[in-house]
């Protein structure tokens, strides 16, 4: 299982702009490197990141083999109402990892 780290405020005032940071621990192998025996290390990359806020898309990113290991994303959103932030990463084979956080808006 991948290690996911998310930083977002637990509470915000209605209309406030909040900063959200998300990182997934992943090797992001390009498929171009070789191991100690000279064999190519198979490609293994995260290809997509999505964040929704109460099902509305707030951030989406596509990654390529040139993306560093442990992809990190930082973005902003406007706090509109209490709800759920859902973070989803998808790899080249369609495997997904998800994490949810609650944002309470006052």
Automatic annotation (TrEMBL):
Pfam family, one: SoxZ
Superkingdom: Bacteria
Transmembrane regions listed in the UniProt entry: none
UniProt cross-references to InterPro entries, sorted A to Z: Ig-like_fold, Ig_E-set, SoxZ, SoxZ_dom
Domain Sulphur oxidation protein SoxZ: start-end pairs: 9-100
NCBIfam families per record: SoxZ_true
Protein's name in the database: Putative sulfur oxidation protein SoxZ
Taxonomic classification: Bacteria, Pseudomonadati, Pseudomonadota, Alphaproteobacteria, Hyphomonadales
